[in-house]
Amino acid sequence: LSWCGDILCQLDVDMDNIQSRKTAHYIVTSADTVGVDEQTIIDVLTKRTYSQRREIAFSYERKAKKDMITALKGALSGSLESVILGLMKSTTQYDASEIRGSIKGLGTDEETLIEILCSRSNTELLEIKQVYKELFKKELDKDVAGDTSGNFAKLLLALAKRAEPSAVVDSEKIDQDARALYQAGIGVKGTDVPTWISIMSERSVPHLQKVFQRYKSYSPYDMQESIIKEVKGDLQKSFLVIVQCIENKQLYFAKRLNEAMKGKGAKEKLLTRIIVSRCEVDLKKVCSEYKAHFGESLQKAIQEHTKGDYQKVILSLCGPEE
Questions:
Q1: Selecting from 3.20.20.450, 1.10.1040.10, 2.60.40.1120, 1.10.220.10, what CATH number does the domain 91-160 have?
Q2: Has residue 28 got a pLDDT over 60?
Q3: Domain note for this entry (predicted)?
Q4: Distance separating alpha carbons of residues 64 and 231, to the nearest angstrom
Q5: Sign of CA dihedral 90, 91, 96, 100
Q6: Which of 39, 76, 101, 163 is least enclosed by beta carbons within 10 angstroms?
Q7: For the chain, what are the domain ranges?
Q8: Structurally, what CATH architecture does the domain formed by 1-76 represent?
């Protein structure tokens, strides 16, 4: 690997100046040597925020007279490249790009679609839709509709199109919704899926948390158990993600990370997507939930199931054990 004859040997950043939006100072040393200093790239880019990484990229371009992202693509490969290039996008840009990748070309990566669309807040989904259109000149709703079908498609589109629900928690409405969920599922033969979609896509998180608690006074099963009994396939997976994220979003991602590291090796695509997408959102809390739920740290699990520079970059994003 090479930087086309140049190696990024050192990038020293004046953090105070970046944080105060003043001029950033960098040292970019080039050498006519074959090879790449992956450790420096990892150290520099994983210990900065997205806005700081963008400043580094602008400075690199001024110093080296070349685009840093293009240079990174030429220098890196495999899972390390995927992580580093992911970090050069904002969280919203990364989510939009992952959605686009899941529906572009033949076949659909339903797992990625479900994870992102069913776990993001209304505000995040609105931003994703805007960025998706800016990046790909396409409407997210139309692309999702074109690659999915049936009630699964209706649920995803309801999530993508929903307006910001009222933050007011109405105790009377809580009981009405809990009863409606029961009567649309366990309490009747068959399942009234449109009612489930309506309630789960149009209510606020605090409201639904109380609805799911009240639901247990009507049903012999909790909401997740009811979903498993009533619906199947991608629709089941989608409803489960919604409920799990409403109940404890960080625990949901901790469980997903555990799934990514079962058996030998790791599902690096899944591991990368969660670590990169949550690193500036709630990754510290995800790490705490992981340790509380599984009895070992996320960092230890990563050490056991990954190796090389990929392990280094993932561990650096997670930070030290607490």
A1: 1.10.220.10
A2: no
A3: A pair of annexin repeats may form one binding site for calcium and phospholipid.
A4: 56
A5: positive
A6: 163
A7: 1-76, 91-160, 171-247, 249-318
A8: Orthogonal Bundle (1.10)
